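User: I'm curious whether this sequence folds into something compact or stays loose and floppy. Could you predict its structure so I can see for myself?
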Amino acid sequence: MPPYKLMYRFGIAPWEWRDVAGTWQPILEGQNALAAGRALDVGCGTGRDAVYLAKHGWRVTAVDFAEDALAKARQRGADEGVQVEWIQGDVGRLDQLGLEPGYTLLYDFGCIQGLADAARRGAATGLTRLAAPGASLLLFAFKRGRHILLPRGMDQGDVGALLGGGWHLAQTNSVKEDRMPGFVGRAGPTVYRFTRRDDGGLPA
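Assistant: Here's the prediction. I'll summarize afterward.
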């Protein structure tokens, strides 16, 4: 597992080079835009996405284990004048954090891909149990392999197998950008969009 706490402490967080507005505009705007509801940010980091969604009317719960990142996230929320429920916790035990199910939007932009296999499965179980029927899930991952300063990543097959039959893959989108360092772009940054099946998933 990448030393996330250490990476934040030294300002090395390559997952935060993503364009937040560019990620969310196609999802929050236009004819097929998601209606604002409850959102769960898994591995929220410094809170860029959580604050952005809160400013657009979402009720956001944001979870991270790294104290330094959460401190910056709380300050970001205060500076922007929005309310976010910030929770320090282990995303590998997501369904053990006392969260109320029924989130209509869940997302992870770089955390789960770097976890050990058991923690990945725990996170996926939590996502499925906490999602409302028909919920949308966005999951960011680099392609699987050895990467400098990056998590080990997951390919599309890995992501699908991890989530299981409770989710339908609706879309894949490369988020490689010119402003990213070369080693980040070469790692194949991709966002997978899933929809929670109404009749699938784990038993209660």
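Summary: The CA atoms of residues 103 and 131 lie 5 Å apart. The mean pLDDT is 84.
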